[in-house]
Specification:
Helix content is 20%, strand content 28%. By secondary structure, the chain is an alpha+beta fold. It folds into two domains: 41 residues, no CATH class; 121 residues, no CATH class. The chain has a four-stranded antiparallel β-sheet, with no helix packed on it. The protein is globular. It starts with 16 loop residues before the first helix and ends in a 6-residue tail after the last strand.
């Protein structure tokens, strides 16, 4: 009950049965809305075309990585040229599920610590992931080009779409390159 700027918290048992039910329903709806908002809000990857001081590092890799041969073969991971990093793809959901949800992970070879760069769904249900990868010569950037049905675990899209990212190390800032419509 408000008293100036103070509020008193009352135990649920002090509420009448009807009030308690309405309160629980309202609380449940509010928690559900917050969870859905967190899951459904798209994470925006900075666009490399909008060059700012934050994108300068990524822009310097565009020319090199746009000419690089992208590797399809990295079942055991893909080491950086200086062997300080190893990129690998890990399936995050149950293998019994037909659709695959994956994580692109980066392993620091000296510390043994790994971190997730991004997650993504397979492009076609049951077909595995479609992803090509290239490291920069100095091992400070990675290009990811592929197709997915989405990046969030909940609510993948029905139709696959293209993506083309550059990840700049060591802080793993992700930038989006222009994906041409072929």
């Amino acid at each position: 009950m408000p008293r100036g700027n103070r509020y008193t918290l009352l135990p649920m048992s002090t509420l009448r049965r009807g009030s308690r039910n309405r309160f629980q329903i309202a609380l449940g709806a509010m928690i559900t809305a917050m969870v859905l908002a967190a899951c459904l809000l798209p994470s925006k990857v900075p666009d490399i075309r909008a060059t700012t001081s934050d994108t300068t590092a990524a822009v310097s890799y565009v020319s090199e990585l746009s000419k690089s041969v992208l590797s399809y073969s990295f079942a055991d991971g893909l080491e950086s040229p200086d062997r300080s990093w190893k990129l690998f793809i890990n399936r995050e959901n149950n293998r019994d599920d037909l659709a695959g949800f994956y994580a692109a992970k980066l392993l620091n070879m000296s510390s043994g610590q790994s971190r997730t760069l991004f997650t993504f769904w397979d492009a076609d249900v049951g077909s595995g992931f479609r992803l090509r990868i290239a490291w920069s010569r100095d091992s400070k950037a990675i290009r990811f080009r592929g197709q997915t049905r989405g990046f969030a675990y909940h609510h993948p899209k029905d139709e696959p779409f293209d993506f083309d990212f550059i990840n700049v190390l060591p802080d793993s800032t992700m930038y989006s390159m222009i994906v041409s419509d072929k």
